[in-house]
Amino acid sequence: MEPVRYDDRQKIVRLSTEIVTARRKRNWRKYIYCGLLLFPLVAFIFGFFVIPMLYILYLSFIETKGETNAFYSIGNYVHFFTDSYYLHSLWLTIKISLYTVVVSLLLGYPVALTMAKCSPRVRGLLTLLVASPLLISIVVRNFGWYLLLLPNGTVHQLLISLGITTSPPKLLFSEIGVVIGLSNAYLPFMILSVATSLYNIDPSLEKAAAILGAGPLRSFWSVTLPLSLPGIVSGVVLVFSMSMSAYVTPALMGGANVPMLPVVAYDQIINLLRWTYGSAISYVLLGITLIMVTIFTRMMEKGRYREVFR
Amino acid sequence: MQTVVNDVEIRGVYKQIGKNVILNGIDLQVKQGELLTLLGPSGCGKTSTLNVIAGFLDIDKGEVFIKGKKVTHIPPYKRGLGMVFQTYSLFPHMTVYENLDFGLSLRKVPKEERKKRIEQALELVKMVGLENRYPRQLSGGQRQRVAIARALVVQPMLLLLDEPLSNLDAKLRYELRAEIKRLQKEVGVTTIFVTHDQEEALSLSDRIVVMNKGIIEQVGTPTEIYEHPCTEFVFQFIGKSNQLEGKVKTVDSRMVCIELEEGVQVLVESKNMMGPERSYSIGDEVKLYIRPEKLTIQEQESEPEIFYYNKYNASIVQMNYLGSAWEIELLLFGKRVQVLQPFVKSDWKIGAEVTVGWNPSDMMIVKK
Ligand SMILES: Nc1ncnc2c1ncn2[C@@H]1O[C@H](COP(=O)(O)OP(=O)(O)OP(=O)(O)O)[C@@H](O)[C@H]1O
Ligand SMILES: [Mg+2]
């Protein structure tokens, strides 16, 4: 190789410093552009989400006595955790959310598995099918279920005419109805998140399991299922938190019989005008959801299959 | 009479996907304890053949026997084989120990023995002390070793390796190649090794199967394949080659004389005929092949003690130093020809006139 001549070296040094300063300038400009582009969204979120949330938090620590008397206290929260009606409502909310998670996981996993196994073209079609309910408003979908599940409605008549039962259970205005409605609404999220993690599994792992002597069931249990855990966890977290905060479905399909917390909070604020207590309920709901989701994900990430989450 | 039992026997295997014929009548026998290599260009059906033996690919026609037992329609998990994949395919959520334990626990081996066998297998591949690592925490070479250990620990009837070294760098590949050969002889397991690297195949195998477009071109030992290729494809695929063209002038049982151009004749041994058609008559158009290292350069009018049947004048066009040898390009009969020489003389320079010679037994001939 030819040695670098002195003036060449100088040129190189000059060039490289030029590049560095140019890059620095450009970076500053880039930050400013980014800031400008992001500003509307940040302002929007701040004004219409962060401030109201803080205001609700503030409200929840105000206790009202009679018409005029108001003071700071944690009385609202004490009231919530000492009144059995609200505790029952909290328990009901958690229970129904868990049922919804289980139902959508059991129904969704096989679909996701099918999507992962089929050819790309069929997969695209299935993805479209799975996501298509999201194109229809949840209110409309719930009304659909409402009609189907009415006492003596289509589902009842079907159950009777098929001879499955003579006195079908109450579907509408019951926990079953709410679970049906919620699972239906949130199934696409479960399917898509499980499917995504299934796509990422190297197909040769199943071959490796097979050649080592694992039949299809064993291979699923020891290889596919553990490796799809990240998708299951994100699906569960999504569906659980959405179910915990669902309002339309419990209100429409559960009515007064299934007082889930969002409905109760709405009732307190809109109908009874107890803004401060309703605010406290909202924050209890938020807190409990966050705690449960955090514990669940921590457990999974520290558990037997922690390696999968890396 | 002693009958040799073949560990694997494949008869007339035919497979078509869509309009694409992937395997077009494969017949293959693998002897007990041997290391057989499937060699061929990309897409020739090596992996498919391996998958047929492993049971991952259903075939349209033909039969597969393993240890004399017909397994054509038996699923992979009941065949009791070991396999190493191109992408290692270690279970990412299991430690090295758990990866090795997977097959053993399925075979209901008692816990104590499992432990012992896993230790032995790890010792064999020099991976002791890394039992509790996850695949993520291993280097490429280490992963490959674990994959081999995982396949061997179940004491398979047959070990299948699908391009196990192709993802590694050259040096590691060389090391692991030698190690696979050692392991295979130590354990004595019948092995089928897939590769598209001819050097790997030549250095590793007891026998080589050269494949092309879904058929087997030739089966033989590495020297047979290299020195006596049966077809033009095998000759060209393995090693480098120079090509000349000419017409048959005379032919007898020992030698064929070929006229390259007016007045220039070369001799080729008759047994070096390649291809399906092996009877030649005068006037046939033929192609001649010779490997660069079979050609020898001499200075003009010197060293009369080395006598070659074929000896011609040529001029040097280019010289490349390869480290272990020199690659010299000559202009011979107006064609560029490559020669591999272990040394060069001081007056061999570009443009120099030299004499090049070769033995009639080193040249291959095939009909056009
Ligand atoms: N699932 C499939 N569908 C259609 N064609 C396939 C399929 N699998 C393989 N093929 C075709 O079969 C032929 C042989 O494939 P195979 O994987 O056996 O090649 P190979 O010799 O292992 O090649 P490589 O060295 O690239 O791994 C190729 O032409 C390939 O395109
Ligand atoms: Mg292949």
From TrEMBL, chain A:
Coiled-coil residue windows: none
Annotated transmembrane regions: 31-58, 90-112, 124-140, 176-199, 219-240, 277-296
Cellular localization per UniProt: Cell membrane
Swiss-Prot/TrEMBL keywords: Cell membrane, Membrane, Transmembrane, Transmembrane helix, Transport
Main localisation: membrane
PROSITE patterns, per the entry: ABC_TM1 (PS50928)
Bilayer topology: Multi-pass membrane protein
Location of the ABC transmembrane type-1 domain: 90-296
Pfam families: BPD_transp_1
InterPro entries in UniProt: MetI-like, MetI-like_sf
Family indicated by similarity: Belongs to the binding-protein-dependent transport system permease family. CysTW subfamily.
Protein name: ABC transporter permease
TrEMBL record, chain B:
Domain ABC transporter: 8-238
PROSITE patterns reported for this sequence: ABC_TRANSPORTER_1 (PS00211), ABC_TRANSPORTER_2 (PS50893)
InterPro entries: AAA+_ATPase, ABC_SmlMolc_Importer, ABC_transporter-like_ATP-bd, ABC_transporter-like_CS, Mo/tungstate-bd_C_term_dom, P-loop_NTPase, Transp-assoc_OB_typ2
Alphabetical list of Gene3D superfamilies matching this protein: 2.40.50.100, P-loop containing nucleotide triphosphate hydrolases (3.40.50.300)
Gene Ontology molecular-function annotations: ATP binding
Top-level taxon: Bacteria
Coiled-coil regions listed: none
Keywords: ATP-binding, Cell inner membrane, Cell membrane, Membrane, Nucleotide-binding, Translocase, Transport
Official protein name in the record: ABC transporter ATP-binding protein
Phylogenetic lineage: Bacteria, Bacillati, Bacillota, Bacilli, Bacillales
